[in-house]
Design goal:
Blueprint: E1 3-5, E2 12-19, E3 25-33, H1 36-50, H2 58-69, H3 75-93, H4 103-114, H5 126-146, H6 153-157, H7 173-182, H8 187-199, H9 203-207, E4 214-215, E5 220-223, E6 226-230, E7 233-237, E8 246-249, H10 252-264, H11 279-293, H12 302-313, H13 318-325, H14 329-335, H15 343-362, H16 371-380
Antiparallel strand pairs: 1-2, 2-3, 4-5, 5-8, 6-7
Helix pairs in contact: 2-3, 7-11, 8-10, 8-12, 13-14
């Protein structure tokens, strides 16, 4: 390696050849270094990046990670990852060689992160601590898989947080009806909340809706996109998951409401967004409506929980609900298990009935049982037949 001094301005530059990922020889020129040492360090890091050498600095590796991963992710997903990397990880590991970071270094970093507080001066939650650690571990996993790192020191160190299951908060149908009456004075708010509650869609799915998504003859709305406001730009992406692409059957009254609402939108195009509002607007309206209605304040996303809870109360299966809201049925079963009414008791009662029926049909009776007693036992077990 060699560095050269620019006679015109006194700065240093490097010029060298390397072989790219296609196996082709390329020439690289980089100017503007203050010292020869800086120029040579830059060339060394560049060549290690090209060779996928784990002796590169952590900072150099992160640039490669971004190049590898960012094109495969949604913009909002990458921005979330980038925020954690830039604010919580790079300040501690940037200048360290990737291959020299140990589990003990990660433990020291964890102890530093635990001392940080949020905007309210509160310590980070265990869930957020886990998120931060998982991102560091994700970086090292990528280095192990693609850049020759032998082990993941973050995995050795162990996680510094844990996922906390938040209690599911929701409105009953009575609470929602009180709320909807309170926001009825603003048609935009009323119709937006009607879609959120009666269809159980996500707020990003709501804000992406266009007239073309509705088929009022079939009473359906198609969910195939999501809206985000990112860095001052309107961004339309695919929904959260593959299963989130779905067609929802709407109740007749909601079809009539949405037809009325779309007619109110003067000269709107079939592919224009019908709810051109922000999440902060909905949060403000949630505050206003909950206060006016005298109901507890819930999050916007809790309207989705409210819809699912209503369907459970109405007796629909986890599979049917999952198809409607774009979840996996196992997620519905796991997250909302406590809302399925007396399922364990119902199972036991049905098994009782099955056993009693078997005794009657096979005559396998060890002691004399009257027909009246069998009927009484069945009724006690909850059998209505």
């Amino acid at each position: 390696m060699a560095a050269f001094k620019d006679k015109n301005n006194g700065s240093w530059y490097v010029q060298f050849r390397y072989v790219d990922w296609k196996g082709e020889r390329q020439q690289k020129l980089k100017r503007g270094f203050k010292t020869k040492h800086e120029a040579l360090d830059w060339e060394r890091e560049f060549l290690m990046q090209k060779k996928s050498d784990p002796n590169m600095t952590f900072e150099s590796f992160v640039k490669l990670y971004e190049k590898d991963v960012k094109p495969r992710l949604k913009l909002n997903t990458w921005l979330s990852k980038e925020s954690v990397i830039q604010q919580k990880i790079l300040p501690y590991f940037a200048k360290r060689k990737l291959s020299e970071i140990t589990a003990k270094n990660v433990i020291d970093w964890q102890n530093e992160i635990r001392l940080l507080t949020d905007s309210k001066g509160e310590p980070y939650s265990p869930t957020y601590l886990k998120t931060i650690h998982n991102q560091l571990s994700c970086l090292f996993n990528h280095a192990v898989k693609y850049y020759g790192l032998t082990t993941n020191p973050a995995a050795k160190a162990g996680n510094m947080g844990k996922e906390e299951r938040r209690d599911i908060i929701f409105w009953t149908s009575e609470e929602y009806k009180k709320f909807s009456e309170a926001v009825m004075d603003k048609s935009l708010s009323f119709y937006a909340f009607e879609m959120l509650y009666w269809c159980g869609i996500r707020v990003g799915e709501l804000l992406a809706l266009t007239p073309a998504d509705f088929d009022f003859e079939r009473q359906t709305v198609t969910i195939n996109k999501s809206y985000q406001r990112l860095k001052g730009r309107d961004v339309i992406t695919s929904p959260k998951t593959v299963k989130s692409n779905r067609t929802i059957k709407m109740p007749k009254f909601l079809c009539e409401e949405m037809q009325d609402y779309i007619r109110m939108l003067y000269d709107i195009g079939k592919n224009e967004r019908i709810f051109q509002i922000t999440k902060s607007y909905l949060h403000h309206e949630m505050d206003r409506g909950a206060k006016a209605a005298g109901v507890k304040r819930i999050r916007i996303h809790d309207l989705r929980h409210s819809h699912i809870s209503l369907l459970i109360e109405m007796g629909f299966s986890a599979l049917a609900i999952a198809d409607r809201v774009g979840h996996e049925s196992i997620d519905i079963t796991y997250r909302y298990a406590h809302l399925f009414p007396n399922k364990q008791t119902e199972m036991a009662n049905r098994l009782d009935v099955e056993r009693i029926t078997d005794i009657v049909l096979t005559g396998n009776i060890e002691e004399e049982i009257s027909v009246d007693q069998i009927k009484k036992d069945a009724e006690d077990a909850g059998y209505k037949g």
